[in-house]
Every structure is written in C-alpha cells, then in structure tokens.
Amino acid sequence: MTGAGALVPSHAGQLPLTMRDRALLPRFYTRFGPSGSTSHTNLVYGTVIRGEVDVDALRSAVGRVVEANPELRAFYSGPDQDPAKYCASPDVPFHFEDCRADGAAFKAAVRAAIAYPFSLTDYPLIRVTLVRRAPARFVFILCAHHLAVDGWSIVMFLRAISRLYKSDGPASRPAVNVPDYLRDRQAYLDSDAAAADTARALAWLTPAIPALRPTQPTLFPSPEEVHRLVRLDRQAVRQACQVLGLSVTEVHRVLFVLVQHALTGLDELGFSESHPNRPPEGLGLYGFLSDDHLVRVTIRPGDTVRDLVNAVNRGLDHAREYEGLPAATLLRRLYDGPPLPRFHFNPFGVGANALRLGGLSIRHFKTMKAFALTDLTFVSLNADFAFIAMARPEVDGFDIDAVAACVRRALALLADPTRPLSHGWLRSGWAA
C-alpha cells in the first residue's frame, strides 16, 4: 500500500518518523525498511517488445490504471502530517523516446529509465518508459519505488495495462478502504490474541534460530551481491512434479530447503517466504502490503524425499497460522540482531509473463540485480529456470557456482521419493 509504505524514511538526510507516523505505519513493512527506503530503492521490470506498439494506446492504459488506483498516486508527506498525500490530477508517469538508428542514445535512455531517482515527498513514485530501438523493436521499462509497489503489485499493474491496451474497458479500482484495513490490523496487533499467537510462534521457531540468524549484517542494496539464472532440466522438474504431486513452485521450495541444508549442515532449518498480505476482497489493491512467512523445517536421520516434502508442507501450514504477525517483530524477539532472515524463498518471478499486448512478441529484458537482503535468495520462475542471489560472493564457503550446482544436484534426488536423504552426500559431496 503506497500511502502506508511511504511512511518509512531513509538514511541520514531523510525525514524521521513521528509518533503519528509510527501509530499508522503497517508493521508488516519488514525486510526493506528503513535502510530499503532510500531514493534509489527501485524495483525495475523490463521487456523487449517486437512488433508495432501503439504508443498512445499504451500511454492511455498506464494513465487509466494510475487514475483508477489512488495508491499509485501517493507519496510520503513528511513528519507531523498525514501519512501520505495523493496527487489528485497527476500527469501520466509515461515517457517515450524514439532512438532509432542511435545506439548511444538508446543505451543512455535505458540506463536513465533503470536508475530513475524518486523523491519520496513528490509524485510520482512510479514511472513507465518506452524506448524505440528500431521500427518494430521497443524496450518497455517499469520503474517504481519499493514504497509504491512490491513484486505482487508489479504483476497486477502489468496485467491491468495489458487488459486496457487498445480496450475501452474500465480500469480496476481497489475494493478496500485502506485506512480501515490498517486500523483493523493494528487493533489485532495490539490485542491479547496477537500476544498469544506471538508466544506460540516464538516457541515453534526457536529451534531454527541458527538458520534464521544472518552470518553478518547486510547492506541494502548489497555492493557485493552476486546472482545467477539457473537452468534446470525441464523434464526432471516435470517428473518431480508428477511423482511428488507438487507444482513447479513447490518443487523449487523443496530444492531450496535441500540447498540450505547443504550450505549450513543444519537439521533444523528456517527461512522466510514472501506472501501477499492483502485482505481477500482487495485483489485490486496495489502497493506494499506483503510480508514474510517464517518457516521451520526439521530433517531427521533416515528421512526420505517424501518425508522432506511433508516436513516442508507442515512448516508452511504452521507458518500460515501466524501470517498476521510481522516477520520482523518475531525475528527481533528471537534474537538481538538485524531483523533479516538468512535464507529467503520468493515463490514468484516478478512480472513473469505478465505483460501481454495483443499479438506482440514480448521477452524478458535484463535490467538490474535483485538485491539479496539475505545470505541466499531463491526465486521460483518456471520449469526451466530458477533465480538465485547472494548478498556476498560466498556463503559458508559456497560461491554462486557451487550453489547453482547444488540446485541441479538436488533436483536429481527428487526422482525417487523413497530415497533416504544422505546427510554426508548433501553436506560434503556438493561442496566438492
């Protein structure tokens, strides 16, 4: 939710939070604040579009989505004021550049779109750029401050644009009164029920503290981050899905747990996982209303692949019982340190296949790093690929190449659900 998320200031030179802000600040703003709210904390999505784009129709689609959703027109208002201000009659945050036959201008336009700095106290906190590289080749870049959107919001925004491109249909409007929702949420967080839920969650998570604690503080964005798009054996993934009765994302989650086990050598594993923290009726609601599940998984000697799948499912079911509790609050209560979990699983690819414009050919355009706030971030994409990012070049002696090899080796384990997990092979064999 843009207005609520925009309460969070950044480093020195930015405005401090007031007591009024703190009272209204949604406490599910966890993994990114406050160090993640600098003027350059941008989420960027890019695609290459082949075919003839109707620029005016695309501009109109962007404008109609922004007009229909006030959260996309919000910005941080400053201390001692309302938590957010909304621009009533905004200019459409759409920029078009025609760079045909000028390679230098094209590269400069793309770089500028990706690195676009936002002022947190001014509209807009979102910007769409379309750059023409050739008569039938364009690059589409959506750049938004993380206070305005999250990964779920990007997908929703792109789908809304796709739906309205060359269409006279109405733009979607949020079905939830955001201030009412935040007040209801705050009332729960201040209640005895939330205190009891917190106590139960802490008791359940305590054995996984070593896996949740970061090995060292991580800056945002990390200057040392390394990342890799890991190609998977599509047939092996589909076979694992069929044999285990899992979706691709669920198979990826099991691979991630196996990799975490290999890196740490721990039997009590813990990780965070993104989930949308929106009210059910608010499916059209844009903005930063997401939080993390904190999941604990126990691996016991003699466990098989099937046992591991069941353990992961139990851990997720248990974590969902406490999804109303801010992950950062639980982590701070578990140990005295940065509220950043060591391993993070992201069950969706940001914007993957979300932009569909008529019969135009659209493919991914690499724009920026994913900003690994944790030691290892695993993003589930599809049967062919997964994305991994590490906040540092090495984690527990494993570099990015070794982790990618771990993912591929773990996939081979899933072919036989009755196969016992070999602790020695997982821990030492992969490192070799």
UniProtKB/TrEMBL annotation:
Residues 39-333 form the Condensation domain. GO terms for molecular function: catalytic activity; phosphopantetheine binding. InterPro entries: CAT-like_dom_sf, Condensation_dom. It comes from the Bacteria. GO terms for cellular component: cytoplasm. It holds the Pfam family Condensation. GO terms for biological process: amino acid activation for nonribosomal peptide biosynthetic process; secondary metabolite biosynthetic process. This is Condensation domain-containing protein.
